[in-house]
Amino acid sequence: MSAGAQETIAIDSSPRVQVVTNHGDFVIELDRIRAPMTVENFLEYVTEGHYNGTIFHRVLAGFIAQAGGYTEDLKLKPASHTVFNESGNGLTNLRGTVAMARSNDPHSADSQFYINLADNHDLNPRPTRWGYTVFGKVVEGMDVVDQIGHTATGAAGEFDRNVPVDPIVIERMILLTN
User: Which of 71, 75, 111, 132 has a Cα-to-Cα distance from 171 of 20 to 30 A?
Assistant: First the structure.
């Protein structure tokens, strides 16, 4: 390298995270180019160990499987920060994609995410409203995700429905290296 030239550090534009559950593992590939703030937010929660011991607390067959916010005893796990809504990034809520869950406030997403079990175009942004930010996709283990999506659900804790009867626990998430 010549004198005065700056060395650049390559940042992985498509980091992968292995999700280890008590029902099998799957791998999510993140899109740092189209959803940079959301990916950084998600990776912070991964590296903090926030997801360890959380469950899939909302599963609707043929729609979504949501996780990342509740412990196995259905206690809300405090989230440390939220992220700006990046739903206009060109990524859409197609089967196998991963997106941020949120309240009615478009910028309220924190640690909770969902996996689309079908194409869910109604979750995409429209000219008159914000959508839900897609930031990755399942690239390995979609069969595990499909099994999660077909699990029996019912009422539990504060939820009147859609909670898996047999808890699906995220034991840990592992940031994979290339």
Answer: 132
Strands, E, within the chain: which ranges?
16-21, 24-30, 54-60, 64-71, 97-100, 113-116, 134-140, 153-156, 159-164, 169-176
Beta-sheet pairing, 64-71 with 113-116: antiparallel
Phi, psi of 86 (to 5 degrees): -110, 30
Task: Name residues of the chain where pLDDT drops below 70.
Answer: 1-10, 178
Residue-level pLDDT at 41 = 98
3 state DSSP class of 78? coil
Closest residue by Cα to residue 121 from 146, 87, 144: 87
**Any idea what DSSP says for residue 22?**
B
**How far is the C-alpha of 97 from the C-alpha of 92, rounded, in Å?**
8
Q: Residue 2 domain-assigned?
A: no
pLDDT of residue 55: 98
**What is the tens place of the pLDDT at every residue in 96-136?**
999 999 999 999 999 999 999 999 999 999 999 999 999 99
Backbone angles phi, psi at 96, to 5 degrees: 90, -10
Q: What is the CATH number of the domain that holds 36?
A: 2.40.100.10
The range of the structural domain enclosing residue 125 comes to 16-176
Query: How many structural domains comprise the chain?
Result: 1
